[in-house]
Amino acid sequence: MESLIVSFQEVLKEIKSRFDVEQYNGAPMQAVVRRWEEAPKPADLDLFNAAVKARKELQNLAVRFSEDDVERWAVSTGLCKLDLFDAIGASFAVAYHKHQSDFFFCDWLVNNLVNHVYNGFVSGNEKWPNLFYDVYLAFDAGEYFRPGEEELDAGEAYTRPLIGEIMEREETKKILANFGLS
Questions:
Q1: Nearest CA among 33, 55, 157 for reference residue 104
Q2: Are the C-beta atoms of residues 154 and 145 closer than 8 Å to each other?
Q3: Diameter of the chain by CA atoms?
Q4: What's the pTM?
Q5: C-alpha to C-alpha distances, 96 to 15, 150, 159, 161, 167, nearest whole angstrom
Q6: Residues 6+ apart with CB under 8 A from 136
Q7: In which band, very low, low, confident or very high, does the pLDDT at 109 lie, cut at 50, 70 and 90?
Q8: Which residue has the higher pLDDT, 156 or 38?
Q9: Helix axes 45-60, 29-38, angle to 10 degrees
Q10: Which of 85, 76, 168 is nearest to 119 (CA)?
């Protein structure tokens, strides 16, 4: 069990390092994220739509994890992909819940991994990782401003309560305990 925890911790370090070194027009990705988060929220609909489009474009620039990455992580941890995705989802849910990782990083992560979930499931090779997908949906809920709520922090208003509910589940607690992440 201890070697599994060490192997999984290495996977988490690799994921975090990929975000840290991400570049956008020569600026570290985290600096770009801060500029986005500090920008005033638009008051009119045209500016609102432009801001949503800009955020989506920024998210699309992120480094993508390859199928080889996911396969390597599964082999190095000895986990099937279902358990690997659920463990990754649980670990970043707890990091966000404890304010150890910010919204943008966790959202970036689940958006970069969800296609691997879809592809594995559709191909019939993998089972559906319910916990990971619930974490994905929680971050998806905080990705955009709703009309009339431009001043609201959507991550705090929508994602944080959903993550809180996920953290209360027995399934989540069990996964976190298995990986020494609770």
A1: 33
A2: yes
A3: 54
A4: 0.73
A5: 15, 22, 10, 11, 10
A6: 89, 110, 111, 113, 114, 117
A7: confident
A8: 156
A9: 170
A10: 85
Q: Where are the beta strands (DSSP E) in the chain?
A: 23-24, 27-28
Q: What tokens appear for 84 in the block?
A: 């690997």
Tokens of 141: 């809920």
Which has the closest alpha carbon to 116: 129, 106, 97?
A: 129
Question: In whole angstroms, what is the distance from residue 120 CA to residue 168 CA?
Answer: 28
CA 139 to CA 52: how far, in whole Å? 15
Give the Å distances, CA to CA, from 61 to 56, 92, 170: 9, 21, 36
Give kind and range of the element (H or E) at residue 45: helix 45-60
Phi/psi for 24 (5° steps) reads -135, 105
Which residue do the tokens 């809180």 mark? 164
Highest mean pLDDT among 15-24, 91-100, 125-134: 91-100
Instruction: Provide the residue type at 64 as one letter.
Output: R
What's the CA gap between 44 and 63, in Å, rounded?
32
**Which residue's structure tokens are 């997908």?**
133
